[in-house]
Amino acid sequence: MAYISFEDHKKQLLKDPEFKKAYDELESEDVLIRCMLNQRIENGLTQAKLAKKMGTKQSAISRFEAGNSNPTMAFLYKLADALDVKIKFSISG
User: Fold this and answer.
1) Where are the alpha helices (DSSP H) in 43-93?
2) What is the CATH number of the domain that holds 25?
3) Closest to 80 (Cα-Cα) out of 27, 33, 44, 29
4) Angle, helices 17-42/58-66, rounded to nearest 10 degrees
5) Which domain holds residue 42?
């Protein structure tokens, strides 16, 4: 059995229009999660410390960072406030 690299497999999958559409829709969510995670680490905060600062549970932070939640706008604004960052949204057509 021949093995292919992850990148080669991803390239093959992205040729499928339905897969590419779903992949592209998740890109902005992934960028947001990575930015917030990096900011938490740069601020020297554990998930537990960040949760306490936000008034939520550590498990909520964990689910967010793992991409296993559908956060509300209120959650995102509390998160940004606790990390001392601003979130900017843009809509393009």
Assistant:
1) 47-54, 58-66, 73-82
2) 1.10.260.40
3) 33
4) 140
5) 8-82
Answer yes or no: is pLDDT of 4 > 90: no
Number of domains into which the chain is organized: 1
How big is the chain, counted in residues? 93
Round to whole Å and give the CA distance between 31 and 21. Answer: 16
Which tokens in the block code for residue 5? 């690299």
Q: Is the whole-model pTM more than 0.85?
A: no
In tens, the pLDDT along 22-73 reads: 777 767 788 899 999 999 999 999 999 999 999 999 999 999 999 999 999 9
* Angle between the N-to-C axes of helices 17-42 and 73-82, in degrees from 0 to 180, rounded to the nearest 10: 30
Residue 73 burial (10 A CB sphere; 0-12, 13-18, 19+): exposed
